Amino acid sequence: MSTFDFLLQGLTVALDPMILFYALIGVTLGTAVGVLPGIGPALTVALLLPVTYGLDPAGSLIMFAGIYYGGMYGGSTTSILLNTPGESASIVTALEGNKMARAGRGGPALATAAIGSFVAGLIATLALAFLAPYVVKLALVFGPREYFALMMLAFVTVSAAFGDSAMKGLTSLFVGLALALVGIDQLTGQARLSFGVPELLDGIEVTTLAVALFAIGEALFVASQGNTVVEKIEAVKGSVWMSRSDWARSWKPWLRGTLIGFPIGAMPAGGAEIGTLLSYATEKRLSKHPEEFGHGAIEGVAGPEAANNASAAGTLVPLLTLGLPTSATAAIMLAGFQQFGLQPGPLLFATSPQLVWGLISSLLVANVMLLVLNLPLIRLWVKLLTIPRHWLYAGILLFATLGTIGMNPSPVELGMLLLFGIMGFAMRLYCYPIAPVVVGLILGPMAEQQLRRALAISQGDWTTLVATPVAAGILLLATLALVVPLIMRMRGKGALLAQLASEED
Amino acid sequence: MSTFDPATKRRPNGAAFIIAAALAALGALLIWQGFAIPDKGGYAGIGSGALPKFVGFALLVLAVLHIVSGLRDAAPDMPRPHWGPVLWTVAGLALQVILLKPLGFSIASALLFACTAAGFGKNKLALTVPIGLALSLLIYGVFDQLLRLKLPAGLLERLIFGG
What we know:
The complex is a heterodimer.
Chain A: H1 3-14, H2 17-35, H3 41-51, H4 57-82, H5 91-102, H6 106-140, H7 144-161, H8 166-180, E1 183-184, E2 191-192, H9 206-224, H10 244-266, H11 273-286, H12 299-322, H13 328-339, H14 346-351, H15 353-374, H16 378-384, H17 389-407, H18 411-429, H19 435-457, H20 469-490, H21 494-499
Antiparallel strand pairs in A: 1-2
Helix pairs in contact in A: 1-15, 2-4, 2-15, 3-4, 3-9, 3-13, 3-17, 4-5, 4-6, 4-12, 4-13, 4-15, 5-6, 5-12, 6-10, 6-12, 6-15, 7-8, 7-19, 7-20, 8-19, 9-17, 9-18, 10-11, 10-12, 11-12, 13-19
Chain B: H1 14-36, H2 50-72, H3 83-103, H4 105-119, H5 125-146, H6 155-161
Helix pairs in contact in B: 1-2, 3-4, 4-5
């Protein structure tokens, strides 16, 4: 069967009323958390993991994907109207979008962001559908050493390649790897670092760590900054519709943004921010109105917004076909799959085609829902921004602890939540990136297994790791991703990399 | 925006040394545990103890790097954190852990809610505690009764929801 048949088959799953309902919940929640500063899609999926334990797997996963897409849509609203990005992939949007809003052109800015997200989401999801079967075929020839090499590449790009300091990124990564070692070794059954505490034998829960770092750490950090900052929300004046010249100036950036965002999301390069920055730089160079950049150029909103949605779809390529998460949200979605006893990877396409293609098809449906939710209802979402911060964060912490309490109300688990929360606060305070900890915790055990399997196959011969051109090539790429930025920083080009910092999603 | 504060300027970068000490302690712990594990490598040549040792050594290297950068670079300019709000929030979380079992989900969570709100500047407890309680009870009703997520029940939950 061709991809097209699979997609049609998937649509029959996606159009099931119950599944539509799950998708609607997902995109609504996703838009809301995207709009609200301080909580992102990674955290929301982490919070919902324990809640969905008893629900339908397909529906829950579709809901998670909806949250991911919705977060990318909603983030632009906050960036444009508040100049505070709702999530990290929308930082660039704030540059031009907020200037447009101040100039009374908030409506068209929101419209080009929403329609750009729609166009990019649609194209990128189709690209995901057509690309996935090929990657699956490729993945079938991958052995443990290739997977190990891919994971090394993911580790390096998430932690060291971008951001203002490789040392800080690597520190975060190794803290995550250290936490990953707690519990029973999956290959030999040996208990490690559990110190006789039975709760630790199961290892550290991804959701506990993610919720602690993203929700509690973030709340403590915001609290520590005092209540001095007064943020001004720009009202949406006039029509949200775009003029003819807005359309003319937007459609090319949308397509270019998609073209840039999708491959970057699909590569193990960590985060949607990089694509948005590249798209912004491209638009600035190609624009016929370069003088408008910095004063509200619509291209500077259209391109990056398309890029961040395209990279969200791109992230799903390695996640679904290889089981390899390349962003914090994808890492937590992987935990979501595992919760239902599903292991993303080539095998999933063979064993649960209904689920995989249902998921991909419902992303197309979710995109349509998001366009409807975001364009006409934009004024409703803006209202969310007027919730006072004390109610907002009190509510966030209440829900943050709810997930852990529902999963395992033991004092050990809740104590870990508090401990990691304080750790997350310290990391935020001293500018250590958070995503590498989560990625380290999830990918750490997988990388260890693949390494030891590869070595067992070769009877302890380490050269096996570079014995195939694919594995050697990927490892070389990973080394370059570690070394080249170090040289760039030494030559004083670190500012560029600091801008590309990969934060959360 | 970081505000200019002469008190924080030219401070030795103490944070880097504290972080270095923490990393070194964690690294040492991992190496110790790595050696404590009987290492039966099998075919692979490396066993359960190898990775803890490797990560431990990496953490020690990172600790050294932190000391070097702490000696070389000045402390970054950053606004002094307000500790009051942080302590309120941490106290709320700690209270919830302690009170969850004896008093049940709703009361413990209501106190967390009120403490967090206080941390963010809303310290009228007579207002925030009842709101928190109402919200927690609503959450308990939806999640425990409808979605079958087991939440610890206390006196209040048994009075309202029975069972």
